[in-house]
Amino acid sequence: NNGPFVVMPKITGNTLGKTHFKGLHELFAAFLRLSKAINQVHTAQFLTLDLSLENVYVLTDDGGMTGVYLHDFDNMLPMDMVGLADNIGTSFAFAAPEVLLEEFSSICRQTDYYSLAAMLHTLLFGYSPEADQSDPFRFHKTVKPYSDLLKNSVQIQKALNDFFRHCLALYPEDRYQSY
To answer: What is the pTM of this model?
Structure first.
């Protein structure tokens, strides 16, 4: 019939926010894969600017996680056009301060790094780093926190504290400069 068609394999998985990882190792492996995917976007001179637990798909099989994929690219912008933007759609729970404050000239690679770290923070502790600590409804409804697994390791707690301090810094220039 000369019509266009697509052949796809059957894949199984879920969004990042609904995926139940077997433990911290699998969770961190997913974020390592995600950071590499974001690096490929940056290498192509784009910013994602809308990272969220719903915009990342985790493929699984009986043996566990097999892949991590970004989707929902409608807010992606070329790096050289970000300063010219007058509006950027985003997932507010994971958005960097410069996006929320509409300081478009400050948006850069570190803006995506902030969102990536905010998502990891939410999965580890059950609430976003920007949540009002006095708000009893601050916990993300779809997330089962992994914080209990962190209690027995002072070394992991120190490493995560250092990581979040550098990734979730208020100003982009104070954040890590690469993934």
So the answer is: 0.83
